[in-house]
Amino acid sequence: MAWRDFLELNLSSRVVVFDTTLRDGEQTAGAALKPDDKVRLAEALADLGVDVVEAGFPPVSAGESSAIKEITAMGLGSKICVLSRCEKSDIDSAAKVNPDWIHVFIATSDIHLQHKLKLSRDQALEKAVSAVEYAKSFGFTVHFSAEDATRTELPFLLKVFKAVEEAGADSIDIPDTVGTAVPPAMKKITAEVVKAVKIPVAVHCHDDFGLAVANSLAGVEAGAEIVHATVNGIGERAGNASLEEIVASLRFLYGVDTSIRLEKIYRVSRLVEKLMGIVVPKNKAIVGDNAFAHESGIHVHGILGNPTTYEPVMPEVFGRRRRIVFGKHSGIHGLEAFLREYGFTVDRDKVSQILWRIKDYADAGGKVSEETVLSFAQDVYGRRSMHRSYVRNLFLMLAGNSFKAQVDLMVAGEPVSGDGEGPSSVEAALNAVSNALKKIAEFRVEDLKIHAPLVGHHSSEAEVVVSSKGVEFVGRGIGADPALAVVAAFTSAAHQIMFDSRRLEAE
Ligand code: MN
After folding, report:
1. How far is the CA of 99 from the centre of ligand 1 (A)?
2. Would you say residue 266 has pLDDT above 90?
3. Percent of the chain, pLDDT > 70?
4. Ligand 1 centre distance from Cα of residue 239 (Å)
5. Where does a domain end: 381, 408, 441?
6. CATH of the domain at 322
7. Spacing, Cα 479 to ligand 1 middle (Å)
8. Are 176 and 314 members of one domain?
9. Domain check: are 110 and 232 in the same one?
10. For the packed helices 62-73 and 35-48, what is the interaxial angle rounded to 10 degrees?
11. Alpha carbon of 225 to ligand 1 centroid (Å)
12. Predicted pLDDT at 321
């Protein structure tokens, strides 16, 4: 980056990623993991390459404590850390789950000391020091946080950090607990702390003002060597600093490495979304649906010529794919590329006719799915039967506590149908369409995503990733109802599988 030359940076050559998805992330209002899911996520995080997994806070519940115990016993590649207040009893329960790291914390701001802990500054300092000493006596790697550090008077904050360093802490952390720092402030505080101690310094930022990632990076600019982060930026209130955004910024903007396997980021993001039940916004950086989607003709033309024109990083780097979306901003080049993928021979006249139909349709308020584009193409090119794939009928019925679904599809010119049952209309439709498609193609469902907007919008969207003989296909569908969108998405995926196998046979 050109700006690296004129900024004052005190970058460490490698930054340690301290992941707190399973602790601060799980403190998200409404999020809770079953112990099994917690273990599964810990494995995924270790596989992603995080240096430290903060697995939880043992005193919370028996389930929490036993899940953490299971995680520490797995011998994962990451260090496992647990949270603890500066209390003997907390440190004792931490010891029972056998972690590598213990993260002890105590608030140091006057607001917290007076209104929450009812302690004087001296008392807090003494508790911090004795907790660090006690935790060290178990042989743990001790990470100390001064909660609400950014609202703590700086000389007192430095005094606490120096005292815990002397007591044996291995690293210290500057939490911006309520997200009220701005990047220059975070940079200044971190610089002062880095100057005052010899042990590594961490930053832990919250997103109350949308500054968590910016503040974390400001900390790194001032010499922080550890960043606390959560996948998808989940966490209390507005969340924590997002792991994917920090890691990508460090790598591609600052040129600083972490141990994260970038190509696994998207899969882990999807897993966290699914297991935590916290939906990732479409426009979220790196992992959102639209992060690598392009509609505008000018942008698509640029992208097809050279992706760096409108993409700072290739989507494949994060395990994603580029997506060209059709609408009123579409241009001829993106459409040509799409039609070629579906086996149409490109003819400028026909392609422009299709393009105008897309624009008219979008102007009339319609959402343009890939199926819509294909149906326009079939009209314009003539209805060659092998190019026809669409949903003919979807019957849904509520019978007692479960839904029944029946689908009739046309896939690559062949009629096919299937039945299914499920606890919701979507699951019934999903089972019915899977049963139908099983008859014509071998495939496995890798991922399914449904976006059902509020009442008043008339289209739900679904995206399915299926694999067939080791090749992945992404099908997308739009429908007035989520169940219909799911069926349409599967039909589109099946269409691609059929075309792919026909192409293979022809060769
Ligand atoms: Mn926090």
Report:
1. 20
2. yes
3. 97
4. 8
5. 381
6. 4.10.430.20
7. 40
8. no
9. yes
10. 40
11. 18
12. 87
